[in-house]
Structures are given as structure tokens and as C-alpha cells.
């Protein structure tokens, strides 16, 4: 029944599905690791047990999210060898070392200190434990650094040579490969998105418990910290996103054309299309609601600046406009909604109603998952906008896949969907269960009982009897 399907499209759907699931967890754990470091640092500085309670409360949630992020990411590396073996053969000499650096630096750092952070507070000194927490936070950032370096090179490849077999080989300078033209913008934009995503989750949990008990000191503190983060970071993210868009216009103009919905060139200033229905068959935006010349103002800082359209791109090199057009608008709309929530919280502080303004709390609860939706929408915009290439401008997607039949790819896709929803659905439900319970005074740390793989530890009673 799957023979009539396109195996390349099925492979793309499979990778897109798994990476979307995976991206949700690092976008949370990157920000949450830094939040844990801040909480522990405040506890050490002030001595207030409230910060320690919040640290232990969120550490349990971090442990589960981190574990699901690791497990959900492992299968993607296998897909490079199963569904995308040609891409691995040709691009492996460049991206392989970068991905190995991520394991050798970030993953080893996180693995080495995670156990100390989760279970070692009563076993090591305060300074060493705080160091472990900071190292875990640093490890999540380094992991993002290397993965985004790989992705950025695929988007804006530099520093390579191509041999006679069509393989991409490193040139004279690895820094040129690592720090490709889009990498700084992509790194800052993604890490800020992770911090913003975490702040919205923390704010939603705090708001949820404030709606149940406005006097809860733990809920008040986490809500206040989260809203400060949203108010400060959301406008910064909008500025960084604008700079990233200008960089994309320079290096991947077709992606920006699709994001803006510009099928036609505009020699005298391009409109900003707020909403509309892309019509790929007729190459136009139906029912468009637009602001004249505003796109030229945003992208070129000149109302009358000309902007080329997709009519300058061959049809077989155009990215899928409909997907990119809508995913970009979802991301931008949620970004401005986050800005609105942050400004609303500032009004609440000014009016001394931050902790008893029920509508603000309800809005924060509703906005809780918006960060995850925004980062997935942003990822879709970035990756679908790169099409029809895997290595932009050099290697086409239909030249990168393995010689697999559609039924084989479809079977593994169905298996991934079933397993992912079952396993990670259960994990997500348990995280929500933990969030539903309010943080309490003298919050317990995670169970520190070691799991032994060899040897026998006598029970305390038995040991006492032997001693007698």
C-alpha cells in the first residue's frame, strides 16, 4: 500500500517528526539548567531556603526532560546512516567531526556532573555542588553550540572543498567551517529562545499555583522571576530575530521570499503581507492583508527599496512556500504575544497586582506551551526554507537519500510515531504531574539511593547483627 509514495518525502517526514520531538526537550533543558544554577547561586548568596526548595523542585523536572532529550536525539544519528547514507558519505568529513566534538565536550561534561547535581547535595560541599550545576548548564550551551554549528554550515556552507567523488572536505581552516556566516545569529537566536521557553513554562507553573493560592511564597517567587525574564528577553529576541532575518536575506534570499510570500518581484518597494492564503499553482497570495512597502522598510530600511521575488528563482529550486509562510507567521505572532505578556507583567508590578491579577495569571498559563510551539515553528521555517537542498546551494535533497523503498521507510516512520507518542507522551504526562504539585518548604531532593550493578550491600539491620 506504500509503493506509490515517495521514499524521499517519507524520509524527510520521519526526520522532521523525530527532530521536532527532540527539539522540544533541549529547548527546555538548556534554559532550565541555567535557571537551576541561578536558584542555587541565590540560595548560597542569601541563605534563603525558598531558593533551595525551588532548586530541588525544578531539578526533578529537569532530570526527566534531560533524559527524554538524550533518548529522543539518539535515533536521529542512526537516520543519517539509514535514510540519508549518501548525505553522510558526502558531507560526513565536515559535519562528522563537529558532531563528535559535541559528544567529547558537551555530553561528557553533562554526564560527568549531572549525577553530582541531582544526587550529591548531601554528599559534597556546597561549592563543589554549585560548580557541578554550573557545569551542567555550561554543557547544555556547548551542546547547542556544536549542533547549531553543524546546522548553520548546512545552511551557509563555507571553508570546504569538493573532491572528485563529490565529497565535502575541510579546507585550510576549521574556524571558517565552525563559524559559518549564519552561525552567530542562529546560536544567539536559538539560545535566547530556549531561555524564553523556560521562563514561560516556569511562569505558567507559578501562575497555576497562584490561581489556587495567592499567598504561596514559592509560586510568587517563580512567577516573579519568570515574568522578569519574559519582559527582558522577549524584546531582545525580536531584535535578534530581525538581525537573523537580514542575514538570511543576504545568504538565503529564496527562504526570505517564501517567508514574506513574495512570488513576484517588487521594484518600487515590497508590501508586508500579514495574512493570506498561498496559491502555489497560480503563484500568488490570495486574500492578502498587507501593508504597502513595509517589507522593504524592514528588510532594506528603505520604503522604495526593490526586493526580488520567487519569479527570479527556477521552479525546481523554490522552497515550499505554504509551509514556510505559515510557520514563520506562527513564530512571529507568538513572539509578539510573549512580548505582550512581559509588558503586562510590568504593568502588574507597577500597579502592585502581580500576584493577585487573575487574568494575568490565566494568560501566563495559556502561554506556557507557546515557547515550544514557537521553536518548532522556527525550526520548520529554517529547515523547510533550505529546501530543495541538504547543503544549501550544493547538494540537493533528492541526491542525498539512501536507496530505500517506500514501504521500508513508511514502516519505520509508523514505528517511530507509535513509540514516540507512547514513551514521550508518558514522560510528558509525568512532568505535568510534577508541575501540578506545588513546591513546598524543605522540598526533598531526588532519591539518592544508588542503583548497584554488581555486589551486594547488606541491609542496615543485618549489618548491625553482624557487628554484634
UniProtKB/TrEMBL annotation:
It comes from the Bacteria. It is found in: Cell inner membrane; Cell membrane. It is a multi-pass membrane protein. Its main location: membrane. Keywords: Cell membrane, Electron transport, Heme, Iron, Membrane, Metal-binding, Transmembrane, Transmembrane helix, Transport. The chain crosses the membrane at residues 20-45, 57-78, 98-120, 127-148, 192-211, 223-240, 323-347, 359-380, 404-432. PANTHER family: CYTOCHROME BD MENAQUINOL OXIDASE SUBUNIT I-RELATED (PTHR30365:SF14), CYTOCHROME D UBIQUINOL OXIDASE (PTHR30365). Belongs to the cytochrome ubiquinol oxidase subunit 1 family. This is Cytochrome ubiquinol oxidase subunit I.
Amino acid at each position: 500500500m506504500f509503493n506509490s509514495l515517495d521514499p524521499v518525502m517519507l524520509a524527510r517526514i520521519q526526520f522532521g517528526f523525530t527532530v521536532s520531538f527532540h527539539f522540544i526537550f533541549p529547548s527546555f533543558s538548556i534554559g532550565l539548567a541555567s535557571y537551576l544554577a541561578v536558584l542555587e547561586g541565590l540560595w548560597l548568596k542569601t541563605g534563603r531556603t525558598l531558593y533551595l526548595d525551588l532548586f530541588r523542585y525544578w531539578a526533578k523536572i529537569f532530570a526527566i526532560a534531560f533524559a527524554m532529550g538524550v533518548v529522543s536525539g539518539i535515533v536521529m544519528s542512526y537516520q543519517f546512516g539509514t535514510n540519508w547514507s549518501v548525505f553522510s558519505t558526502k558531507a560526513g568529513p565536515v559535519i562528522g567531526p563537529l558532531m563528535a566534538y559535541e559528544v567529547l565536550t558537551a555530553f561528557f561534561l553533562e554526564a560527568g556532573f549531572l549525577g553530582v547535581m541531582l544526587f550529591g547535595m548531601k554528599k559534597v560541599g556546597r561549592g563543589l555542588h554549585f560548580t557541578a550545576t554550573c557545569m551542567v548548564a555550561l554543557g547544555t550551551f556547548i551542546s547547542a553550540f556544536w549542533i547549531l554549528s553543524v546546522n548553520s554550515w548546512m545552511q551557509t556552507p563555507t571553508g570546504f572543498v569538493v573532491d572528485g567523488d563529490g565529497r565535502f572536505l575541510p579546507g585550510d581552516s576549521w574556524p571558517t567551517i565552525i563559524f559559518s556566516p549564519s552561525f552567530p545569529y542562529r546560536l544567539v537566536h536559538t539560545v535566547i529562545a530556549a531561555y524564553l521557553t523556560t521562563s514561560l513554562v516556569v511562569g505558567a507553573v507559578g501562575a497555576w499555583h497562584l490561581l489556587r493560592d495567592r499567598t504561596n511564597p514559592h509560586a510568587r517567587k517563580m512567577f516573579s522571576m519568570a515574568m522578569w525574564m519574559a519582559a527582558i528577553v522577549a524584546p531582545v529576541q525580536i531584535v535578534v530575530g530581525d538581525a537573523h532575518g537580514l542575514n538570511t536575506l543576504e545568504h538565503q534570499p529564496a527562504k526570505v521570499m517564501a517567508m514574506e510570500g513574495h512570488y513576484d518581484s517588487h521594484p518600487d518597494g515590497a508590501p508586508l503581507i500579514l495574512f493570506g492564503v498561498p496559491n502555489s499553482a497560480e503563484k500568488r497570495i490570495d486574500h492578502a492583508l498587507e501593508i504597502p512597502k513595509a517589507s522593504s522598510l524592514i528588510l532594506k530600511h528603505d520604503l522604495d527599496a526593490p526586493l526580488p521575488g520567487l519569479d527570479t528563482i527556477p521552479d525546481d529550486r523554490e522552497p515550499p512556500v505554504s509551509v514556510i509562510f505559515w510557520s514563520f507567521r506562527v513564530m512571529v505572532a507568538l513572539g509578539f504575544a510573549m512580548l505582550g505578556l512581559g509588558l503586562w507583567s510590568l504593568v502588574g508590578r507597577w500597579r502592585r497586582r502581580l500576584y493577585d491579577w487573575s487574568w494575568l495569571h490565566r494568560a501566563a498559563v495559556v502561554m506556557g506551551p507557546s515557547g515550544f510551539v514557537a521553536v518548532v515553528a522556527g525550526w520548520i521555517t529554517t529547515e523547510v526554507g533550505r529546501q530543495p537542498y541538504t547543503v544549501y546551494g550544493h547538494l540537493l535533497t533528492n541526491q542525498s537519500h539512501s536507496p530505500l523503498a517506500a514501504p521500508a521507510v513508511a514502516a519505520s516512520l509508523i514505528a517511530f510515531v507509535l513509540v514516540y507518542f507512547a514513551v514521550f507522551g508518558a514522560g510528558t504526562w509525568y512532568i505535568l504531574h510534577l508541575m501540578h504539585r506545588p513546591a513546598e518548604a524543605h522540598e526533598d531532593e531526588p532519591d539518592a539511593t544508588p542503583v548497584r550493578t554488581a555486589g551486594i550491600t547488606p541491609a542496615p539491620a543485618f549489618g548491625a547483627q553482624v557487628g554484634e
